[in-house]
Design brief:
This protein is an alpha+beta fold and 450 residues long. 30% of the residues lie in helices and 17% in strands.
C-alpha cells in the first residue's frame, strides 16, 4: 500500500511556479472528426528553420575550430523529432565519424537515471524523503561532522545537528567531503577509497560512512558521491543489484537496449574516443585503454553517479519519458506527480553556499536535476525556460527537459575539461540569444518572428 505523502520540508523560492510550465506541458490540440479546431493562441515552434541553421553553424564551428572532435545533437518537440545532426569525428585517429549509433560515456548524466530508479521505490512507499539514511543503511549511523582543527592540527568533530536524510542525498546537501581544502579529511577519504572500482556498493557505503562529514547536513550544496549512495539504497531497499534494477525498471520498459555500464566487445568499435583540449585548442586523444577502461571491463562497482554509456536515441527515450510526465510509448516509469516533485526546487533559501551551481544559470536543485526558477538575468547567462530541468556530464554532454514547450534536447560531445561555453552556445542556438532591455527579457528569435 502506498504511504500518504507529506509536503517537502523545504522553503521554496516564491518566484518559482512550476505548475505554469505544467499547464503548457499537458495542453493538447482539440480536433473534431469534421475539421480541426484552432486554439485561441498558437505557440510557435522553437525548432524552426532559423534555429536549425543556428544549431548547424554553432556545432560545425566547434568542430572546425578544434573545440571538439565530434558532436551530435537530437531534439524532440511536441512528441516529434525536429532536429538531428552529427558533426566531425567520434575518433579522429581512426577516421570514424560521429554517427547516430555512436556510443558515448555520459558520466554524470547517469545521475538522473539513478534518481528515477530511487523514486520508483518512493512511489511504492518503501521510504520517505525525510527519512534518515541510517534507517536503511546503518553504515551511515553515528557519523561525525568536521568542526575545525585544534592547536595541534588535529580534527575537531561534532555530532550532526540532524541526521543526513534521503532528501539530502537527492539534492547534494548530505555533507560528504568533496574538497582537498581540508587536507586531513581529504587524506581520510583517499585512504578509505570508497569509489575503488573493485568495491561493491555495500563496500563503497561502508568506507564512505567511515569518513567524517565536511559540513552539517542540509547547510550547503556540494556536488559529490550522494547519488552513488542513492544507488546503494536502491540495492539495499529493493534487494536487487543496482544494475539489474535499472535494467528491469527503466531500460527494458523504455527499450534503452544500448544504455549500459559494460560495452560488449562487438560494439566497442562504436565507442567514441575521449579528448582533452589544451589552452591552444589542440585536442589530445586520451588513451582508450585508460579512458574507456570502466566500460570495457566488468567491475564490482556499479555507481549511481557516473559510469553509464548510451546513444543519442537511447538517452532521448529517457528524456522523452520525463517530458511526458513519466510515460513513453505505453511504458509508465513514474507517476506525473513524482516527476513534478523531482523537477521542483528542494533547496531552501537558507542554503546560500552552492559551490558552482549558480554557473548553470538562475537555478535551484530538485531531485537529481537542476531546475530553472527564473528567466536569465542577462544575455551572458545560460538560456533556458522557467520549469526546465536538466543535467550534464563531465565530458561536456548535456540534456534538458523543457515542459513549457514540450521540448527535449540532447548534446553529445566527448571533451575534457568540462566546457561550459559549449552548453551556453548550444542553448543560444536552440532558443536564440536573449536581449535584455530594462525589466524586459526577450528572445531575439521571437522578436524577429513577431
Amino acid at each position: 500500500m502506498t504511504q500518504q505523502r507529506t509536503q517537502p520540508n523545504t522553503t521554496m523560492n516564491s518566484t518559482y511556479y512550476y505548475l505554469a510550465g505544467s499547464a503548457a506541458w499537458l495542453l493538447t490540440a482539440c480536433t473534431t472528426p469534421e475539421a480541426p479546431t484552432e486554439t485561441a493562441e498558437t505557440t510557435p515552434s522553437i525548432i524552426n528553420e532559423a534555429a536549425t541553421a543556428r544549431i548547424d553553424s554553432t556545432l560545425q564551428a566547434y568542430v572546425d575550430d578544434s573545440i571538439v572532435a565530434g558532436a551530435s545533437a537530437l531534439l524532440y518537440e511536441q512528441g516529434e523529432e525536429v532536429y538531428f545532426q552529427t558533426f566531425g569525428m567520434a575518433d579522429r585517429e581512426a577516421n570514424r565519424p560521429m554517427d547516430r549509433n555512436t556510443i558515448v560515456q555520459i558520466f554524470s548524466m547517469t545521475k538522473p537515471i539513478t534518481g528515477v530508479a530511487l523514486m520508483t521505490l518512493y512511489e511504492e512507499g518503501a521510504f520517505e524523503l525525510d527519512d534518515p539514511v541510517s534507517k536503511y543503511a546503518p553504515e551511515f549511523a553515528d557519523m561525525q561532522v568536521y568542526a575545525g582543527e585544534d592547536a595541534n592540527g588535529e580534527l575537531i568533530l561534532e555530532p550532526p545537528h540532524r541526521e543526513m536524510t534521503i532528501r539530502d542525498l537527492t539534492r547534494h546537501t548530505a555533507g560528504f567531503v568533496t574538497t582537498p581544502d581540508v587536507p586531513k579529511l581529504a587524506e581520510m577519504l583517499r585512504e578509505a577509497d570508497p569509489m575503488n572500482r573493485e568495491n561493491t556498493l555495500t563496500q563503497m557505503a561502508e568506507k564512505l560512512g567511515s569518513v567524517p562529514l565536511w559540513f552539517q547536513p542540509g547547510e550547503r550544496w556540494a556536488y559529490g558521491p550522494s547519488v552513488d549512495v542513492q544507488a546503494f539504497l536502491v540495492e539495499r531497499i529493493s534487494g536487487q543489484p543496482f544494475d539489474q534494477y535499472i535494467q528491469t525498471h527503466i531500460f527494458d520498459p523504455l527499450k534503452m537496449e544500448e544504455t549500459r555500464y559494460l560495452v560488449p566487445e562487438s560494439d566497442r568499435n562504436r565507442l567514441a574516443a575521449l579528448y582533452r583540449q589544451a589552452e591552444d585548442s589542440t585536442l589530445t586523444h586520451l588513451p582508450d585503454e585508460q579512458a574507456q577502461a570502466f566500460n570495457t571491463q566488468k567491475w564490482a562497482l556499479t555507481p549511481g553517479g557516473f559510469g553509464l554509456t548510451s546513444t543519442v536515441d537511447n538517452y532521448m527515450r529517457f528524456a522523452r519519458m520525463l517530458v511526458n510526465e513519466g510515460e513513453l510509448d505505453g511504458a509508465r516509469i513514474l507517476k506525473p506527480e513524482t516527476i513534478r516533485l523531482m523537477a521542483t526546487n528542494q533547496l531552501a533559501d537558507s542554503v546560500t553556499e552552492r559551490s558552482w551551481l549558480p554557473s548553470k544559470g538562475n537555478v535551484g536543485f530538485g531531485i537529481d536535476f537542476a531546475v530553472r526558477e527564473d528567466p536569465p538575468l542577462s544575455a551572458e547567462e545560460n538560456h533556458g525556460k522557467v520549469g526546465e530541468f536538466f543535467w550534464d556530464g563531465a565530458a561536456s554532454t548535456l540534456f534538458w527537459v523543457d515542459p513549457a514547450n514540450d521540448l527535449t534536447a540532447l548534446l553529445f560531445v566527448q571533451i575534457f575539461p568540462f566546457n561550459r561555453e559549449i552548453h551556453k552556445d548550444f542553448r543560444d542556438a536552440v532558443y536564440g540569444k536573449y536581449e535584455v532591455e530594462g525589466e524586459i527579457v526577450r528572445n531575439d528569435q521571437e522578436e524577429a518572428d513577431s
